[in-house]
Amino acid sequence: MTRKKYLYQHYTWPEMREVITRQPVVIVPVGTVEDHGHHLPLDTDNFLIWEICEAAAQKIQDEVLLMPLVPYGFEAHHMDFPGTININNQHLYHFMLDITKSLAHHGFQHILIADGHGSNMPILELVARQTVIETGVSCAAFIWPVLAADVIASVRESAKPGGMSHACELETSLYLHLDRQRVQMDKARREIGLPPSKFIWLDLAQASPVRFMDIWSGFSETGVNGDPTLATEEKGAKIFAAVVDRFIELIREFRSRSRNKPVDHHQRQAEPRP
Ligand SMILES: [Zn+2]
């Protein structure tokens, strides 16, 4: 195993002191251990977000630092499926905030939380906001499909919305591209169990305007929500490349983004001299 320049945990602390002075963007990947139908392993969200982060970090090694993966997420609605590990949403919030505040304490100015699991997002968005409020550093959170929504739409064949929600055309295509040996395509089954709605649906590529998360086993027998039977390695390759490219763009933009200092308007500002 060689040392990797982009991996946070491969540095010693005196080296880290130097690394902080060049202000790389720190990437904090978050996934989960969760049922993904009969055809995908429990590691799907962890595996996909890690591969995306590592592929991006390898290409711009001087500009980023990749943290160890946080492998557990908020799963209370998935607990009817054997194997899923649930972290209480308050625990996840405080755990993640402790990580970002530690990074800010050491002097890092730019933190991106890269999420692989939809239900982590409301929590991670709050973590990012609270980090900004408490520490002043730049901290933002995103889930990977939003980076390449246009490319995903261009290869998509499944019903919209609903066909790309969970263990679906999207996630299965990416997994096939990254390691087809671990995907049991003969067991993939289409399931879109939620009632049709103008306001409420689940789709990784296009969030619904109204948010409602039901207990998963009530509307999905296999745990799938979407259509994995339409997944292909080719779609996965195209989407993966686009997500990695956009992630690099995001990192660069985020690193050079200008921010004004906040102004406390409680004190009357001195009148400009005539
Ligand atoms: Zn997933």
Which characteristics define this entry?
7 helices, 274 residues, globular, binds zinc ion, 36% helix
What does the model show?
The chain is an alpha/beta fold. Helix content is 36%, strand content 9%. It is built from seven helices and six strands; from the N terminus they run αβαβαβαβαβαβα. It has helices spanning 13-21, 44-59, 89-106, 121-135, 149-155, 169-179, 233-256, and strands at 25-30, 64-66, 110-115, 138-143, 164-166, 225-226. The chain has a four-stranded parallel β-sheet, with helices on both faces. Strands 5-6 form a two-stranded antiparallel ribbon. α2 packs across α7 and α3 (89-106) runs parallel beside α4 (121-135). The longest helix is centred in the C-terminal third of the chain and has 24 residues, at 233-256. It is globular and about 70 Å long. The N and C termini lie far apart (68 Å). The relative contact order is 0.16. The model has no long low-confidence stretch (mean pLDDT 96). The site of zinc ion has 6 residues, from α2.
Number of strands: 6
- How large is the share of residues in beta strands? 5-15%
Hetero compounds: zinc ion
What is the gyration radius calculated from CA atoms? 20 Å
Largest sheet: 4 strands, parallel
- Judged by helices, strands and strand pairing, the structural class is alpha/beta
**How are helices and strands ordered from N to C?**
HEHEHEHEHEHEH
Task: Report how far apart the termini are.
Answer: 68 Å
Shape assignment: globular
Mean pLDDT figure: 96
The percentage helix is 25-40%
